[in-house]
Model the fold of this input.
Amino acid sequence: MEYEIELEKLDCTQELGEKPVIVAGPCSAESEEQVMETAIKLKGIGINLYRAGVWKPRTRPGSFEGMGSKALPWLRKVKREVGMKVAIEVAHPSHIFEALKYDIDIFWIGARTTVNPFLVQNLADAMRGLDNPVFVKNPVNPDLNLWIGALERLNRAGIKKLAALHRGFSYFGPNRYRNVPQWEIPIELRRRFPKLPILTDPSHICGRRDLLQEVSQEAMDLNFTGLFIESHINPDVALSDKEQQLTPDDLKIMLDKLVIRKAEVEDEKLLNTLKHLRKQIDLLDDELMDVLEKRMRISEKIGHYKKEHNITIFQNVRWNEIVGKRLVQGHEKNMSEEFVDKVFRAIHQESIKKQNKIMNE
Ligand code: PEP
Ligand code: MN
Done:
């Protein structure tokens, strides 16, 4: 697939500063005092980029929907008096026009907006000719092309300073996270656009404070550009997302604990050790492929046999037996249920596909 994003022009690193880039601030701008006090504290711990929601997209009506334009002068005050760059979410062209009157530096497009190409196009049209950096959150559903599509629409409108915000994906049913990270999606985005900055938003992934450290560390270990994180002067009384916000002091503690590892290895000895270990992985992957091939051959044999004797392909009892046994084994071998289930489901699906083909030949 061909993409339109001009890679060499994407760089907004000058705007963002050194890695890891930290953008922090409250979920919502609630009052001038809350906005200013949070900003002063964050500036005090070395943060230069401030986020705050002014118009809030809420899942259900009736909850706090943001202070709207009234909050914009407070953010301009942060910019002028505290010396931070300020970022807000925009979901409608009127938000952009209002924000520009108050010198807002950075715009971000929220997860519920990225899903809608009409809305994204309207925003891109309204931004035409602007030099402001624009951050694009992933859509709520795990659709990488929709995420890329939004970046492309902005890029087509001449926006060069783009960054992606990874905030996790919706999931129905009990889950550890508020929005499942599905790291493979931002990893694939990074593979396709190596120069596009990717910031992880641990707040909306976790939905709770106790997971923030772990998810932020994961983002650092994946060599993402930085964090986009919620911080409130007094989270207990926050008007939105109180469970996931950290005080600036707690944010500092969390950031100080992060281990920032090297992305590139120069040391000869280290390189050799890595090379050696990677070689072993490659050999094991070869073996895995051979075993899978053998397994598929047997599946095909079974397919022919079932066809001859007029037996259905999918047999529930057999499938439960396969998965049940491997889950127990996975446990013993220290592999997560989620992983074992995914692997065997994929293998089983491929087998069914092959048998289906045989049946209908
Ligand atoms: C936010 O950043 O406050 C927000 C509303 O996020 P999202 O669009 O990721 O839900
Ligand atoms: Mn929020």
Summary: The chain has 14 helices and eight strands. Residues 7-257 form a domain with the TIM Barrel fold (CATH 3.20.20.70).
